[in-house]
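ok so dumb question maybe but i'm new to this and my supervisor (M.) told me to 'just get the structure for Carboxyltransferase domain-containing protein' and walked off. so i did the thing. is this what she meant?? sequence i used:
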Amino acid sequence: MLVRRYGWDGLLLEVDDPAAWFRALRAARERGALSCEEIVPAARTVLLRGVRGEPRWAELAPAAAPPAPPQQVDVPVHWDGPDHDAVAAAWQTDPARVLRETVFTVAFCGFAPGFGYLTGLPERRWLPRLASPRTRVPAGSVALAGPYAGIYPRSSPGGWQLVGRTDAVLFDLDREPPALLAPGTLVRFTDA
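this is what came out, is it supposed to look like this??
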């Protein structure tokens, strides 16, 4: 682990498993062993903002204390995305079956409010982004790129391979919390 100062009250942790560190740090904050305002995981880092005091990393490491059980969200999907057949050919099996059997974890959020980067695909299932991104991906599109699965919370450009769509609302300012998916949440895809 490498710890870097980030601004006047932040720390940026470069770690091997940001999702595990996020869960451990969140659990430490809940039990009073860590004082900070915000914990933000990313692909290779975890940002702590509003840190008070000097954290004792050995006591906060993922193995130091078991995290609370994660929340699970089931997402019903219509398996009719425009890249469904291409993904089926690449995988030599039905993408819907593979995605239904996989338990995903929201590693981090970004790109757009409510967009969670879902990990859990075996490496043999990783797919490249499209050579030429689409100018418009419909809201609710279930997509794959590299090691990640994701769901577009709103219409936007995008280069991920689209295998299905959901009617689930990923981000709603009138809901508390607004985002359906948060780091650490388990995600299961089901048939709509």
